[in-house]
Amino acid sequence: MDGPRCESQDLLAWFDRCRRDLPWRSTSDPYRIWVSETMLQQTQVERVLPYYEQLVSTFSDVDALARAPLEDVLAVWSGLGYYRRARYLHAAARQIVARGGFPRTMAGWLELPGVGPYTAGAVASIAFGERVPAIDGNAARVLSRFAALEDSPSGKTGRRRLTALAESLVDDDRPGDSNQALMELGAVVCRPSQPRCHECPLEASCKGRLQGAAEAYPRRKPSRQVIEERRLGVVVRAGGRVLLFRRPEGASLLAGLWEIPWIAWCARDNAARELRSRYGGNWDLDRSCGWVRHSITHRDIRFEVWTGRLTSGCHIAENPEAGWYTETEVGGLAVSSLVDKVMRCAAD
Ligand code: SF4
User: Fold this and answer.
1) Which of 122, 177, 269, 339 is deepest in the core (most CB within 10 A)?
2) What is the best residue among 8, 14, 142 to mutate for testing ligand 1's pocket, by most ligand atoms within 8 Å of CB?
3) What's the pLDDT tens digit per position in 98-129?
4) Domain with CATH 3.90.79.10 in the chain
C-alpha cells in the first residue's frame, strides 16, 4: 500500500496506540465536541480542560447554553481569552435551537456565527462521520513539514494546498479519527521546535525531515506589526469593593468585559482630568504601584497601576456599565485577565 492511503493508515494506527485520554474524546455528543473544538482554537489542551469541564457542567446541553444570558457564558469563559469565541458560541447555540438541531455537515456548520472551516470540519467529521478535513495549527505544521510546502499556511495558495493534502489523508471509515490523529501528532510529536521524528508514523516519507530542515516549515508570512500601548489605570477601593467599568458591546477588543478604569498613559498631573473626561466624576490619584504588562492579540500593553479615589460624581448607582464589586464577585464576572494582574499589583 503506497501513497496517502498508506500514510492515513499509519497515522490511525499511531493514534490508536498513543492518543491522549481527553474528555471530549470519550463522547459522540456534538455539543461537547463543538464546545471543545471552539475552546481549543489558539489555546492549549491543558489550559482548556478546566474551562471545558466548567462550561459543560454549567450548561449541560445546547438548550441550556442558548437559554443562558450571555453574561453568564462570558463569566464561565472568563480567563480563557479570545472572548469573541464565547459570544459566537452563545449566538450559534441560539441558532441551533431555533433551527431544531445540530447541522450534520461541514457546510451546515459553516452557516453558524463564528464557525470557520476548522471547527466545521472537526465537528462534522468527529461527531457525524463526514469525510472532510479539519486543519488546526498543529495539523498545518505536520502537513507543511510532511510535504515541504513552500507556501505559508496563512496565505491563500498555502491554505488550498494544505486542504488538498489533508483531504487525501482523511480515512473513508474513520474521518474524525484521521483528523484528530493529525492534530494530535502536531501537538505531541511534530512540535514547533525539536520535532520527535523518530516517534513519527510519517517519518519515512516526510520531505521536511528528509531535507534535514523540518523546522524550516511551515513557511511564515511577514509578522504583523505589534502595536505598543501605554496606559494608566486606577484601582479604586471603597468598603471592601473595587470599582469596575464594563466595555461597550461594540468595542473591537474585549467587548462587554469588565475592567479597571484606565486612560492612555499621561503624567499624574493630567490623569485626573483625563479620567474625568472619560468616566465623569472627580478623581484623585494616591500611589503608583508599578507597571504590569499584558498582550492582547497584536497589542503589547504596558499598564501603570495607581490606587486612587473617586471623590464625587460619576453616578455609579445609575450607570449599568459601572459597579462596585467584592473580590469574590469579581471572580464571577466576565473580566479581562488584565484585571487580575492589576489587582495583584495594587495589593503588593
Ligand atoms: S517526520 Fe518529523 S517533521 Fe515530519 S511530520 Fe513527523 S515529526 Fe514532523
Assistant:
1) 122
2) 142
3) 999 999 999 999 999 999 999 999 999 999 99
4) 227-347
* CATH number of the domain located at residue range(s) 227-347 in this protein: 3.90.79.10
Residues of the chain with CATH 1.10.340.30: 3-216
CB atoms within 10 A of CB 320: 6
- Domain 3-216 sits in which CATH superfamily? Hypothetical protein; domain 2 (1.10.340.30)
Say how many C-beta atoms besides its own lie within 10 A of residue 319's C-beta: 13
Rounded Cα–Cα distance for residues 348 and 345 (Å): 5
Q: HEC profile for 172-239? A: CCCHHHHHHHHHHHHHHCCCCCCCCHHHCCCHHHCHHHHCCCHHHCCCCCCCCCCEEEEEEEEEEEEC
Residue 328: predicted pLDDT:
86
Residue 321 has a pLDDT of 85
Q: How far is the CA of 143 from the centre of ligand 1 (A)?
A: 9
**Cα–Cα distance for residue pair 292/344, rounded to 1 Å:** 10
CA–CA gap between residue 185 and residue 200 (Å, rounded): 8
CA 146 to chain CA mean position, Å: 27
Residue 138 alpha carbon to ligand 1 centre in Å: 12
Q: Which residues line ligand 1 (CB under 6 A)?
A: 142, 145-146, 189-190, 195, 197, 200, 202-203, 206, 208-209, 214
Say how many Å lie between the CA of residue 104 and the centre of ligand 1: 33
List, run by run, the mean pLDDT of 10-residue segments along the chain (348 residues): 74 96 95 97 92 97 97 92 92 97 97 95 97 95 96 91 94 96 96 96 95 93 84 94 88 85 94 91 93 89 94 71 88 85 88
